[in-house]
Write a structure and sequence with these properties.
- The structure is a homodimer.
- By secondary structure, chain A is α+β, with helices and mostly antiparallel strands.
- The first copy, chain A, folds into 2 domains: 2-75, 3-Layer(aba) Sandwich (Glutaredoxin), CATH 3.40.30; 86-199, Glutathione S-transferase Yfyf (Class Pi), Chain A, domain 2 (Up-down Bundle).
- The first copy, chain A, has 7 helices and 4 strands, in the order βαβαββααααα.
- Chain A has helices at residues 9-21, 40-43, 65-75, 86-115, 126-149, 160-175, 184-194, and strands at residues 2-5, 26-29, 53-55, 61-63.
- Chain A is globular, with a radius of gyration of 17 Å.
- Chain A starts with a strand and ends in an 8-residue tail after the last helix.
- Chains A and B meet through α3, α4 and α5 of A and α3, α4 and α5 of B.
Chain lengths: 202, 202
């Protein structure tokens, strides 16, 4: 197995997921700033032009962070990170989507449209970036409330939803386009999650 | 079980999924135009304020189209719609996310920002709607190419990725904000998918 990646929230999500599973593989750096991800050679691996991409030993390519994670979960079911019965699987999926679609995607749109980080290759609309930042903020009380009642986002067990929110929250803090409010429950949970061995740098 | 829904692409995705599984339940109409989904009573069911929401017999609520679908898949594994081994599960997840994130979400943003359908409750940025329409269009060749080589989007078997692309494609045709090109492979596949009993109106 070989993982094509570049420094990004999605690469970090896969790195943490792999450490939780205790698996590792060869890493290949992809230079996003130089546009390596939209080169012909890379588009043959992933026509979507995105990292990370996992190459299997038979030459099959799996792209999309969560598809890679599900592949690893199927091969290494423990520790379980997607739920292990109908209801827990549904709860993980529900909370993970709330994090991804309502928060992380909006933070990413705010970042790209406000800062123009990829303006050499996409049309940026700063006004939309501000709207997206507002949508990301609007999702925060849902997580703050849930983490006041539950140890982890989807309930009693640590899951991929926690990985994505912790990485997304860190990214939002770093790029500073979303004015995150004080959230004592999220901060309690974040300290706990970030203390896990899987969140330590190599 | 009880399903809260309103006429929308996501409601249709769940309806088709349930018909594929041969399951049904009580339906409760939610009036989006009147803002019933953002009423206090509904937000207690789903703090995200979105439909569909599945209420279980014990009063548990599951929101998010794909979380509802995964719950039903776990209870009724056949016919399998999410893949049944590590690689097929990863491929379904990968193609499903390409459809959802690269195509359907962009069609929805184009629709909402260009037409101002929900302008009574959200800020619309028409310029972003045009950019999102362009992003949706840019994803189409990936599906057209795949469906020239495979019977279904994720390979040999019909999956939730096909449901989402068929519903999303129909929605894009209906709302006319994305100028869809001629795509013979997608049209071949669409005719086949839309002929399934699960796609017939009640």
């Amino acid at each position: 197995m070989k993982l094509y990646e570049s420094p990004s929230p999605n690469a970090l999500r896969v790195q943490v997921f792999m450490k939780e599973k205790g698996v590792d593989c060869e890493r290949v750096a992809v230079d996003l700033r130089a546009g390596e991800n939209i080169s012909e050679a890379f588009l043959a691996k992933n026509p979507g032009g995105r990292v990370p991409v996992l190459e299997l030993d038979d030459g099959t390519y799996i792209s999309e962070t969560v598809a890679i994670s599900r592949y690893l979960e199927a091969l290494h079911p423990q520790p379980n990170l997607f739920g292990d019965d109908a209801l827990s699987m549904a709860k993980v999926e529900m909370w993970h989507r709330r994090v991804e679609i309502n928060f992380l995607l909006n933070v990413a749109m705010a970042f790209r449209n406000i800062t123009g980080f990829f303006k050499d290759r996409e049309t940026c609309v700063p006004e939309w970036g501000e709207v997206a930042a507002g949508h990301a903020l609007a999702a925060v009380p849902m997580f703050e409330s849930q983490l006041g009642e539950q140890e982890y986002l989807a309930g009693d067990n640590f899951s991929i939803a926690d990985i994505t929110l912790a990485v997304g929250w860190g990214f939002a803090k770093q790029v500073k386009v979303v004015p995150l409010p004080q959230c004592p429950n999220i901060e309690r949970w974040l300290a706990q999650v970030q203390a896990r061995p899987s969140f330590q740098a190599d």
